Amino acid sequence: MADPITPAISDRICKHMNEDHQDAILLYAKVYGNTPDAQVAQMLSIDPQGMNLSVQKDNNTIPIRIEFDHQLKDSEDAHHTLIYMIKQAKGK
Questions:
Q1: Which of 35, 64, 71, 82 could form a disulfide with 53 if both were Cys (CB 3.0 to 4.6 A apart)?
Q2: Is the CB of residue 48 less than 8 Å from the CB of residue 18?
Q3: CA distances from 32 to 8, 13, 53, 71 (A)
Q4: For the DUF2470 domain, which residue ranges apply (predicted)?
Q5: C-beta separation of 17 from 30 below 8 A
């Protein structure tokens, strides 16, 4: 059974993404965060409505909020949504 997206689940997802999928986070920032010149990105938090990133661009760190196209139901929905977003971004 999937977990609801609590702060603890957000931390777990962010830790996994930051450690294992930095390229995906950078792609989220570039495509969905409208920051094509982003150089480094980190996922700070995720909630049912969206995700918060910290992006480095031109020696500046800027926060970016990316809204999802639907409200996430749980951690499994988050997993599938993040994968779908990467597939869509790579197609652009």
A1: 64
A2: no
A3: 25, 19, 11, 16
A4: 10-85
A5: no
| CATH number of the CATH domain containing 21 | 3.20.180.10
What is the rounded CA–CA span in Å between residue 20 and residue 4?
22
- Amino acid residing at 14: C
Contact 53, 25 (CB under 8 A): yes
- Scan for tokens 């150089």, then name that residue: 39
Task: From 37, 39, 70, 65, select the one nearest 53 (Cα to Cα).
Answer: 65
- What would the two tokens of residue 22 be? 């930095």
- In this structure, what token pair is assigned to residue 72? 């996430």
* 3-state secondary structure (DSSP) of residue 56: strand
Q: Which domain holds residue 57?
A: 7-87
Mean pLDDT of the chain: 96
